[in-house]
Structure formats: structure tokens, C-alpha cells
Specification:
The complex is a heterodimer of chains A (about 525) and B (about 350). With about 525 residues, chain A is an alpha+beta fold. Chain A has three domains: about 140 residues, Orthogonal Bundle (DNA ligase i, domain 1); about 180 residues, DNA ligase/mRNA capping enzyme (D-amino Acid Aminotransferase, Chain A, domain 1), CATH 3.30.470.30; about 120 residues, OB fold (Dihydrolipoamide Acetyltransferase, E2P) (Beta Barrel). Helices cover about 35% and strands about 25% of the residues of chain A. In chain A, strand 12 and strand 13 form a beta hairpin. The longest helix of chain A has 15 residues. The radius of gyration of chain A is 24 Å and the shape is globular. The chains are: A alpha+beta (about 525), B alpha/beta (about 350). Chains A and B meet through helix 1, helix 5, helix 6 and strand 15 of A and helix 6 and helix 8 of B.
Chain lengths: ~525, ~350
């Protein structure tokens, strides 16, 4: 527990991504099983304790402290778990803090009524730093700026070349804490864990934004074009081991879309866009947002916001891996598979006929439907490659200019909005991995989105500077703007003209937000 | 050091204060600071005044331009080094416990344990006694005399860390954390942000106590204060300027610098610096993270929550006045023990602790 608390503290204060990876790799290399596997589960967000909630922690603190002093302290510290960790009266005890395995076992086995005493006893045995780690661990939400993906990159480092992060990704969803088999594989003590027929996630293939420079270099005869739909990119996996719907960030969103799961009466892995489609017409993204992030979904929701998948690609037909095949071959397989299977709630992404790049430019500009973001261009010979390989797929979004930026700071608005955090500073990733602010936006969202943002900010604050809150780098905002120019106002050296929030990209991991270089290329010379 | 015997204990136990002048009749907060009318002087005035008694040499308490200044000998020396001609036209040094009559007030100084020379100002007038403690701490500090509780009728206290979330750990443990990091990253330079007066010298002394005998490198702004500490008999060992050292010579070393310098261009001279900060605020992660540090060290010149409350009890005063900090929490807490608390809301203190 103490080693884990130290790791969390180091991670919190470490800025650089590569330093975080090194810290994680070092922790995994030096800690025993099953402790490190439990830590990995906690960091990857795979550890959940149903019974231990923030309310329990608050009650424990209230029973031991004066309510006014607690309120003043909480107001100063700004985080419940940290306030409790710091204010907790030091107790004279010979007990040692629980180890991670002890903690997990006790939390799972202890009846709910005895949990408060159990947790209080642990807190008595810890120092302030360990108390904080313990409280964060049992209430969920470590807030250390580390994602499951980053942890898997650290695991790849641990393997010293035996496995890449993508290799680990492919078995990840067939594994469970404390991941003994995974560590054994990474350390060369055992073969790769066999996902067998488990419905695991496959790292998706992503596109590069099409830059003006690319345009001249592309050979239209070598390309296939499709509409870029404004939905959520998903992966459908159906194997003898089960059915899963994954977001492109490897998040299992099956439970939110039962109608899709019900329609997956086949064996294979497919790549597509999740959309709300009514009578054959794609509804705006805002409609799809009604369906996202729900634990359960009622009959009315299913009827009002009917979801469907527009299929882009086929990765596996049955157990046959089609990813090494060129795009045209996969497309033929996809069409054949579709004709044969006729799955409900699904259709095929149309291939758009064209002859020249000018045709494409015209199509792109002519696509005025809000549900089309632009065009996807794919090399007809490209295999399906994980990640964002260069020179295979391009996304050619239509105007206005947009960037996917990461929320960095928030400030309360004024007047009608004075109670909400409605003024947002967002940033893009610089080459060295630092997030740098590029602009501020305070409109463009609906009242419902504002409520979400406000809540998100309050629960993800990492620091306060007077009225300004710094937040975890975990929320992607799609920012629309009319132009970019050089400026000294922001650290990035770029100012945006008329930036507004086009939508919330809760489906997109922060690490995949746009890079600053991409914005720099949009500045007129 | 010769100690003057304390006079009869006034304090909380006395039933009847009607025969004496309550300190609120002769010690009053004014815009320029706390004013002692029968003595005609201010204590730690916030602007230039005729007659000032100074508790310690931090810039928020020892401001320039007073006509006459009374303080402990080290405080006067530190003020002269920092303020030059602004340190007071006439300066009068007062040793610990040495009694002085100013107007109708009897006054003496007792150590406050905050920084070198830091004093509590003890005043008696018409049968009542008030103690203005300035800034103080109770943790042991090899670089200054320890705080001595003086029983009194009114105790004037700071409240910088007056929230129960502030419990400063033992400084030695924080130094151990620093030295462990130095061993873990031998290829990097550890640079510690610390205030030039007090924190710097305490860190050096703590490092020496922990067995770090190597040269300690310093930003140029820190050296003058260290010289005065040595003049007053506080040995600091091998100190060298960081400014002239080559980058490779600072590998594996400990460098001290003012907090503003560690995030600045100045720090670029260092080899892959591990940025550390020594401050009581480092107890709260949000605060620590906000200052961009990689290694927070919870080392403070101020009393923490437990020390504040213990001190209030030890001086036995029925009433405390709070100059600055989180007065709400402290006043609420002492009220639970039937001690009256009064916020003075003096604006201008508390700017030293980064």
C-alpha cells in the first residue's frame, strides 16, 4: 500500500508523459504479484468497489471532526478525499496499513454494515499520504493523469521488447485483475495469454487530417472515398466467447446499446460509426449524446433515439483475420458478409464515386448536412493497421476549421451563468508532450452540455487559482473557429478567431486530441 | 542567556479584570498596524511610522522608513542588510528578557522560534499583559532560539496554518525524503525553492544534521542572509554560489534558490533539475501541484494547527487576537475551550511564506 501511495504521489507531481511511463514501469518491475496487478487494475480503472462510496468517507470524517472546521478545511483543500486524509486524527496504533491484496479481499468480503469500522481502522494505521491513496482507491478516481493506455505502454516497456502496447491491447479485454498471466508473459516466463475466443478489442486504424500539401501528392486512382459521419467510432466484436461494443478508446460500451448487441448475431469483428438513424436519416450528434454514458437505457430512450451502425470495415470474418488484406479485398469481404448476414441496425458506408481530386473537393464542400463531417480517403491497397500509420487513411473535414482540444482550465461565468463553470481554456499537445493553451471559449454549448461540463469540472479539479480551476487533462472539446493567427497571448503562440465549442468529445481520449503542429499549419503564411 | 523571572501569572485564572486596564483599551489595530498608545509605538507597522517595535526581519513585518526601531540584535542586523538606510534612523537593540520602560508601558522581548532574532513582544500596562507573538513555530530549529510561552491576558497570534489539515511532519523526515531523491537521481540537480531569510538557513542546518556535509550551492540572493546567521554563531558549512558553477559541477548537488527563481530562466543552468519546494503549503497537494514542483517538502517556519492550539493553551490567555491567516477556524476552535477570539484583520502580513 505504501509503495502504491508513493507511486501515486510521484505520478501526480510528474508532468512528462515519458517520466510517468518510466515511473509506472519501475513500479511494475519492482512490486510483487498480486500487488502490482491490483495497482494496474486501479490505474486502468478496472477496480470497482460497489459499497465504499464518498458518502461513507464523509460520514467517517464527520464523526471525528468538528463540522465547521471540516467545512473550512474542505473549502481550502477543495477535494473530499484529500481533506479527509489530512484532517484525520492521528491515532496511536500498532497496525500496519493494509496491503493491496488485503484491501481488495476485505472490501469484497466485508458486509456493508461493517465497512465504516474497517475503513476507519485502516485510516488509523496510515500516514496522510497513504490515507489519501487508500481513499482514492476505494472511492475510485485516482486523478493522476494516467490512462489505461499509458499503463499498457508502461507494461510494454516492462516487457523489454517482448510485446508492444498494441499487442497488450489485443489480449487486455480477455484478462482480469491481478493479471498474473500478463506479467508472466511480459517478463518472458510464460507464453502470451491466449484470448482464445474472448471478445477482445483490436486497436483501430486511424486517419491523419488531410493537409493542403497532401492534396497535390495524392493519386485519385489509388483512393477510395467515404463520407465521414459525425457519430462515435466503434468496434463490434462477436465471438463464441461473447459480444462486445467498444469505443475506439477500448472502453466497453455494450451495456449502453442493447439493440446493437442484440443485432450482433454473427461471428466477426467490424469497424463502424455509431449513429442515431431515424427512417434512414442520420440525426445530429446531439441526439446520439442522449444515448452516451448511460449505465442503463429504458424503452423510451431506445424508441426516441434509435441507434445503428454504419459499417466501414471488417477485421475478422468468423475467426479469419482479414487485417493483412488490402482495403479493396476487405471491402469485398465486407459487402459479401453483409449480403449474407443482413444484420439488423446496420448498413454499409457508401463508397463515393469520383474521378479527380477536384471532384472530391466539390463533394466535400457540397456536403452541407450537419451529420457529415467531411470525407474519408483511404488507399485502396492499405492493410488494416493499428494506430495512425502515415500514408494510408486521411480525414478531410469540411469547413469551418475545427480542432479537438483538451480542456485545461475553467472559470465561472457571469450573470446568468455565474454559478457554473462556463468559461473554458483549452489546449493542444506540443511535440514534447506538453499541453499548451491555445484559446478560450464560452459559448456554443447547450444548457445540458453546460451542466455536464460544470459537473465534470467540479469533480476533476486538480488545482485552483482564485476563481480559476485547473482540471485533469481528460476531456476533449471540439472547437470550431474561423481562423488561426500568430499571437503572444497564449503560450502556444497562436490565437483562434471566433472559437466556440462545437461539441463535447467524451468518446475521445485526451491523448488523441490534436497536436499543436496541426494548428500551426492552418496559419496563413 | 540570562533569563528574567516571569512576573506573577495573570492569565485565564484571574477572576476579576475590572481593576486593570484591558489590553483592548491600550493596544489597538489601526491602518498602520497594531498601536500601543501609552507607549506611543507600533508593532510591525505596515507603513513608515515614528516608533516601531519589530518582531522579526521578514519584509512584511520589517518595513522600511521608520524613524526609531526597537528589535532584537539579530533582527536589527538582518534589517540593515536587507533595507540599508531604510532600516530605521535610530536603532535600539534589546536582548532577550531585558526590560524597558517606554512611556507608561513596560516592554521586553522573548524568542518566537520563527527565524533568527524573531521575538515576541511582551507588554505590561496598568496590571494587564499582552504578548504579540509575531510569526512563530514550535518545531525545533537549530538556527534560532526556541519559542517561550509567556502567560498573558491577551495573546496576539498569527494563523497562517490554522486549519486542522495542516500538521507539519517532522522536518527531519522531509529532509530524508529529499536525500532519498538525491540518491535516486544522481544525474540530476535538486533545486529547492526556499525563502532567503530563515527557510534557507534552516534547510542548510537540517541537511547538516542529516549528515550532508557536501557543498551546498546557492542563488546569489540567499548569501547575505547566510553571512549574518554565521556572524550570530549559526554554522552553515560549505556554501558556494550556484551562479558561477558549471552545469556539470551541479550534477548530484543540492541548490537553494528563491521560489521565484526555480521556475525561471535562472534554473536552466541546472542539470535536469528536480524542482523541490520547502513550505508548509506543500502539505496540500493541490497547492503543491499548482506551484509546479516535482518534490514537495513540508517544512514550515510557522506553527501548524496543533502547535497553534497548544500555544494558546500554554499562554493561558482568556483572549486571543488573530493578526492574519485562517482566523475563522482558530477562533471557532478556541471558543470551544471558552477562550475569546478576536480577528484583527490586519492587511499586509503573510506575504513571506511562498
Amino acid at each position: 500500500m505504501i509503495a502504491f501511495a508513493t507511486l501515486l504521489e510521484r505520478l501526480l507531481f510528474t508532468q512528462g508523459r515519458s517520466d510517468k511511463i518510466r515511473l509506472l514501469a519501475q513500479y511494475f518491475a519492482t512490486q510483487p504479484d498480486p500487488d502490482r496487478g491490483i495497482a494496474l487494475a486501479a490505474i486502468a480503472g478496472e477496480l470497482r468497489f460497489a459499497a465504499a462510496k464518498a458518502g461513507l468517507i464523509r460520514d467517517l470524517a464527520n464523526a471525528r471532526t468538528d463540522p465547521i472546521l471540516f467545512a473550512l478545511s474542505y473549502d481550502f483543500v477543495g477535494d473530499l478525499a484529500e481533506t479527509v486524509a489530512l484532517i484525520w486524527p492521528e491515532a496511536a496504533t500498532n497496525a500496519a496499513p493494509p496491503s493491496l491484496p488485503e484491501l481488495v479481499e476485505a472490501l469484497n468480503l466485508t458486509p456493508k454494515i461493517r465497512l465504516p469500522d474497517l475503513v476507519a481502522g485502516w485510516l488509523d494505521a496510515c500516514d496522510a499520504g497513504t490515507r489519501l491513496a487508500l481513499l482514492k482507491l476505494i472511492t475510485g478516481g485516482l486523478r493522476i493523469g494516467v490512462t489505461g493506455r499509458l499503463a499498457r505502454i508502461a507494461l510494454a516497456e516492462l516487457s523489454q521488447g517482448r510485446a508492444s502496447a498494441d499487442d497488450i491491447e489485443e489480449v487486455w479485454h480477455s484478462l482480469a485483475p491481478p493479471y498474473a498471466g500478463l506479467f508472466a508473459w511480459l517478463e518472458g516466463r510464460a507464453p502470451r495469454p491466449d484470448p482464445a475466443t474472448a471478445p477482445v478489442f483490436r486497436p483501430p486504424m486511424l486517419a491523419h487530417p488531410l493537409e493542403p500539401a497532401d492534396l497535390a501528392a495524392l493519386n485519385p486512382a489509388a483512393l477510395r472515398a467515404e463520407w465521414k459521419w459525425d457519430g462515435v467510432r466503434v468496434q463490434l466484436v462477436a465471438t463464441p466467447g461473447g459480444r462486445r461494443l467498444y469505443s475506439r478508446g477500448a472502453e466497453d460500451i455494450s451495456a449502453t446499446f442493447p439493440e446493437i448487441l442484440a443485432a450482433m448475431d454473427f461471428q466477426g469483428v467490424l469497424d463502424g460509426e455509431l449513429l442515431v438513424i431515424r427512417n434512414g436519416t442520420v440525426a445530429p450528434f446531439a441526439d446520439l449524446q442522449q444515448r452516451l454514458n448511460r449505465k442503463t437505457v429504458g424503452a423510451k430512450m431506445l424508441a426516441d433515439y434509435p441507434c445503428a451502425i454504419r459499417l466501414y470495415d471488417i477485421l475478422f470474418d468468423g475467426a479469419e483475420d482479414l487485417r493483412p488484406q488490402p482495403f479493396d479485398a476487405r471491402r469485398a469481404r465486407l459487402e459479401a458478409w453483409f449480403a449474407r448476414t443482413r444484420p439488423a441496425c446496420m448498413d454499409l458506408s457508401e463508397l463515393i464515386p469520383f474521378d479527380t481530386m477536384d471532384d472530391l473537393a466539390t463533394l466535400r464542400e457540397g456536403a452541407r448536412a450537419a451529420t457529415i463531417e467531411g470525407l474519408m480517403l483511404k488507399d485502396r491497397t492499405s492493410p488494416y493497421l493499428p494506430g495512425r500509420p502515415k500514408g494510408h487513411w486521411w480525414k478531410w473535414k469540411r469547413a469551418p476549421l475545427t480542432i479537438d482540444a483538451v480542456l485545461m482550465y475553467a472559470q465561472r461565468g457571469h450573470g446568468k451563468r455565474s454559478g457554473s463553470y462556463s468559461d473554458y481554456t483549452f489546449g493542444l499537445w506540443r511535440e514534447d508532450g506538453e499541453l499548451v493553451p491555445v484559446g478560450k471559449a464560452y459559448f456554443g454549448f447547450t444548457d445540458r452540455e453546460l451542466a455536464f461540463l460544470d459537473q465534470w469540472i467540479r469533480t476533476h479539479t486538480t488545482a485552483r487559482f482564485g476563481p480559476v480551476r485547473e482540471v485533469e487533462h481528460g476531456l476533449v472539446l471540439e472547437i470550431a473557429f474561423d481562423g488561426a493567427q500568430r499571437s503572444t497571448r497564449h503560450k502556444s503562440g497562436i490565437a483562434l478567431r471566433f472559437p466556440r465549442i462545437a461539441r463535447l468529445r467524451t468518446d475521445k481520449p485526451a491523448s488523441e486530441a490534436d497536436r499543436l503542429e496541426m494548428l500551426e499549419r492552418l496559419i496563413p503564411k | 542567556m540570562p533569563r528574567s523571572p516571569l512576573p506573577l501569572v495573570l492569565g485565564r485564572h484571574r477572576a476579576n479584570m475590572s481593576a486593570m486596564a484591558h489590553p483592548e483599551t491600550w493596544l489597538t489595530p489601526q491602518p498602520a498596524g497594531l498601536f500601543c498608545a501609552p507607549g506611543g509605538f507600533f508593532i510591525d507597522p505596515l507603513r513608515a511610522v515614528e516608533r516601531a517595535v519589530i518582531t522579526h526581519a521578514h519584509s512584511d513585518h520589517a518595513r522600511p522608513g521608520h524613524t526609531a526601531v526597537l528589535a532584537s540584535p539579530p533582527t536589527l542586523a538582518l534589517m540593515r542588510a536587507r533595507l540599508g538606510d531604510g532600516a530605521g534612523r535610530t536603532q535600539q537593540a534589546l536582548a532577550w528578557g531585558e526590560r524597558l520602560r517606554i512611556g507608561a508601558v513596560e516592554l521586553w522581548l522573548e524568542p518566537a522560534g520563527h527565524v533568527l532574532g524573531s521575538a515576541q513582544v511582551v507588554m505590561e500596562y496598568q496590571g494587564s499583559r499582552a504578548v504579540v507573538s509575531g510569526d512563530y513555530k514550535r518545531q525545533p530549529d537549530p538556527t534560532c532560539d526556541a519559542f517561550i510561552p509567556v502567560p498573558c491576558d491577551v495573546f496576539v497570534t498569527e494563523a497562517t496554518f490554522a486549519l486542522p489539515v495542516f500538521r507539519h511532519p517532522q522536518a527531519a523526515g522531509e529532509i530524508a525524503k529529499l536525500l532519498a531523491s538525491v540518491r535516486l537521481f544522481p544525474e540530476r540537480t535538486h533545486v529547492i525553492g526556499c525563502y532567503s531569510l530563515g527557510k534557507t538557513q534552516r534547510l542548510i542546518a537540517l541537511l547538516r544534521e542529516a549528515g550532508w556535509d557536501e557543498a551546498i550551492f546557492m542563488h546569489g540572493a540567499l548569501a547575505p542572509m547566510c553571512d549574518i546567521y554565521e556572524q550570530f554563531g549559526v554554522p552553515l558549512g560549505d556554501l558556494r554560489p550556484a551562479t558561477v558553477a558549471a552545469k556539470k559541477d551541479l550534477v548530484g548537488r543540492i541548490v537553494l534558490a528563491p521560489p521565484a527563481a526555480i521556475a525561471d530562466r535562472w534554473a536552466r543552468r541546472l542539470a535536469e533539475p528536480v524542482v523541490c519546494m520547502a513550505s508548509g503549503w506543500m502539505r496540500v497537494r493541490q497547492r503543491a501541484k499548482q506551484s509546479g514542483v516535482e518534490l514537495p517538502l513540508v517544512i514550515s517556519d510557522h506553527a501548524d494547527w496543533d502547535e497553534l492550539n497548544r500555544t494558546v493553551d500554554e499562554v493561558q490567555a482568556p483572549e486571543i487576537w488573530v493578526t492574519h491567516g485562517s482566523e475563522d477556524a482558530l477562533i471557532h476552535e478556541v471558543a470551544r475551550r471558552n477562550i475569546r477570539g478576536r480577528p484583527l484583520r490586519l492587511i499586509g502580513y503573510g506575504e513571506e511564506e511562498p
